[in-house]
Design a protein that fits this description.
The complex is a heterotrimer of chains A (about 130), B (about 100) and C (about 350).
Chain A lengths: L4 E4 L4 H10 L3 E9 L3 E10 L2 E10 L4 E2 L8 H12 L3 E2 L40
Parallel strand pairs in A: 1-4, 5-6
Antiparallel strand pairs in A: 2-3, 3-4
Chain B lengths: L1 H9 L21 E4 L9 H5 L5 E4 L5 E4 L9 H5 L5 E4 L5
Antiparallel strand pairs in B: 1-4, 2-3
Chain C lengths: L3 E6 L11 E7 L2 E8 L7 H4 L8 H6 L6 H15 L6 H29 L3 H22 L8 E2 L2 E2 L5 H27 L1 H7 L7 H6 L4 H6 L14 H4 L11 H24 L15 E10 L2 E10 L4 E7 L1 H12 L8 H7 L4 H5 L1
Antiparallel strand pairs in C: 1-2, 2-3, 4-5, 6-7, 7-8
The chains are: A alpha/beta (about 130), B alpha+beta (about 100), C alpha+beta (about 350).
Chain lengths: ~130, ~100, ~350
């Protein structure tokens, strides 16, 4: 639990983000945490050195509405989420189509934890140095 | 600035003729890892703490200590955790 | 409407120290639109956190960036100290400030050299890097390494600076001040540099606020925002003056950074004078549980670390938002309308650090 945190849903997200913009907040970044069964998407905003966070709990297969129509700067980080976690982000202002940080032949969604809950033989798909 | 211009024109270069003239390494500089193998107790602390997996310690029967210099990131963490202080950082870089 | 051409700028370009591609949509000599393509050096460092314990990750965080390395590890350590409720000794806070500010001088000198190089002013490039060498030697003498200081740890710092070391710092700072006095006014008043930078790559205050610009880019556009004002480490005790400009062009960004170099030297002097004695670190027990967002001001702007621990020795998640990532969107707003020949100068004026952007 972070300070100044507000839980939001997919329906209220855009309104809340627009409200932050209206109050003069600066968009800082979006953080995605893979909890295994769900994703936690944290939106960070800043005003006068105080951080304000929105927490969105997202199902493994749900779409994420883009906030790039409200804060254009979010477009880069949302493309990153799409690449690294394989989250389908809808209505992106600039859509790199999963080729923002990764290229053809890269591992698919390297930061996403394996989806299937029954324990399969562990797949090492990250390719990172152990 | 005029002074600088003249010293640049007639002074000696700011660089050294490297392989022939070498600067003495600063004391306390982290150059390369050295192990005083006679003091080593092969506990494996350095292997466990090394962030780059550059050290491999052979346990009791064979008692070996192997170090891959090309994996080493010269952070000095192993020197800090060594219980008998047989590891040290040599300020010299290279051989 | 004239014909539009797309010119790929980068990933390999003489002025770019690191690979990034900008797809420039051109109308004759004028840029109409720019689109960045990154991903040439994505290393997956955030994933590696799951495999290393949190003490080893201090060194990992340090290697996110090859220029502001020390400040990355300090951010990481500050975050973990907050999760684990560790209060670090006063001397450690001052040492962090001193190394951090010396690092900032080295980063700004590197940047000044690269900017001069981008418009072909080799003399300034050489001179800035000669001064930078003094800073790097100072770092090696005090910390043991030129760039990857390796002195941070959770709970303080690993290495102390002796009294001779502090005197050495003061001597080097004075020597640097002499060098700066000599060449910074020349750089700032040079006719050809002004021709290449004044009025180029304008970013208005509104745009900077809207696109979330950070660091010197925001300060050059008149936004007085510097995370050091919050007084983390020892900035509260040492005191700190924010440097701002209002023009928002490349020249203003240069002026802000030059002003900051002087300010860094002053801060180091005050910190050395006020240096408290005592321990330099406290032992940290246990594993982190909880989440935190740690922030501080790097040479390029505000860096964000999101850290989440779940009681294991490995962190569950580390997320890094580096200042260049935040400054990419403002860069896209600066480019349209400029000439192709000015693109390198504008790109360099945000001080891009691509490796840390992609992590």
């Amino acid at each position: 639990m972070l300070n100044n945190e507000l839980p939001v849903t997919r329906d209220t997200l855009l309104n809340e983000v627009a409200a932050r913009r209206h109050q003069g907040y600066r968009f800082v970044t979006v953080t995605c945490v893979d909890l295994g069964d769900r994703f936690d998407i944290l939106y960070h905003f800043d005003k006068d050195y105080v951080l304000y966070n929105l927490r969105l709990s997202l199902g493994r297969t749900e779409n994420l509405p883009s906030i790039s129509s409200i804060f254009f700067a979010a477009v880069l980080v949302e493309n990153e989420l799409k690449d690294l976690f394989g989250i389908p982000v809808t209505d992106l202002a600039i859509d790199y189509g999963g080729r923002f940080l990764l290229s053809e032949g890269s591992p698919v969604a390297p930061q996403r934890k394996p989806d299937a809950p029954p324990a399969q033989p562990a797949q090492t798909k990250d390719g990172a140095v152990k | 600035m005029i002074k600088r211009v003249f010293s640049n024109l007639f002074g000696s270069p700011a660089t050294r003729l490297y392989p022939f003239t070498r600067r003495e390494p600063f004391a306390g500089s982290r150059g390369q890892l050295k192990n005083d193998i006679a003091k080593c107790i092969f506990c494996g602390q350095c292997q466990r703490r090394c962030p780059a997996d550059a050290i491999v310690v052979g346990k009791k029967p064979d008692k070996s200590w192997a170090f891959d210099r090309y994996r080493c990131i010269v952070c000095g963490y192993c020197v800090e955790v060594c219980p008998v202080k047989c590891l040290s950082m040599d300020p010299k870089h290279g051989d | 409407m004239s014909k539009r051409t797309i010119i790929p700028f980068g990933p390999q370009h003489p002025v770019l120290p690191e690979p990034i591609q900008l797809r420039l949509v051109m109308e004759e000599e004028r840029v109409v639109e720019a689109l960045p393509a990154v991903g040439y050096i994505h290393r997956g460092l955030e994933k590696l956190v799951e495999k290393k314990d949190y003490n080893q990750c201090v060194f990992l965080a340090e290697r996110v960036c090859g220029i502001c390395s020390f400040l990355h590890s300090v951010t990481y350590c500050q975050g973990l100290e907050e999760i684990m409720s560790v209060t670090i000794p006063d001397r450690a806070r001052f040492l962090r400030l001193i190394w951090g500010e010396v690092h900032r001088v080295h980063s700004h000198l590197l940047w000044l050299g690269l900017l001069a190089d981008s418009f072909g002013f080799e003399n300034v490039f050489m001179h800035a890097w000669r001064c930078r060498e003094m800073v790097l030697d100072l770092l090696e003498r005090t910390a043991g390494h030129r760039v990857m200081l390796g002195v941070s740890c959770v709970g303080g710092v690993r290495r102390d600076i002796s009294d001779e070391g502090l005197a050495d710092i003061l001597r080097t700072v004075d020597a640097l001040q002499k060098e700066f006095d000599e060449f910074v006014p020349v750089v700032l008043n040079d006719y050809s540099i002004k021709q290449r930078t004044v009025g180029v790559g304008k970013l208005t205050k509104e745009q900077a606020a809207e696109l979330g610009a950070v660091g010197p880019v925001a300060r050059a556009s008149g936004i007085a925002r510097d995370f050091r004002e919050t007084g983390y480490a020892a900035y509260g005790e040492v005191g700190f003056k924010i440097v701002t400009e209002t023009a928002g062009d490349c020249y203003a960004r240069m002026k802000v950074r030059c002003g900051e170099m002087y300010e860094c030297l002053n801060m180091v002097r005050r910190a050395v004078a006020a240096m408290p004695a005592g321990a330099i670190n406290v032992p940290v027990k246990g594993n982190p549980t909880g989440e935190v967002v740690a922030r501080l001001e790097q040479p390029r702007g505000e860096v964000i670390y999101y850290l989440k621990g779940n009681g294991a020795k490995n962190l569950e998640r580390m997320r890094i938002r580096t200042p260049t990532f935040a400054n990419l969107a403002p860069l896209l707003a600066m480019l349209p309308g400029c000439e192709l020949a000015d693109v390198p100068v504008i790109v360099l004026s945000i001080d891009p650090c691509i490796s840390c952007t992609e992590r």
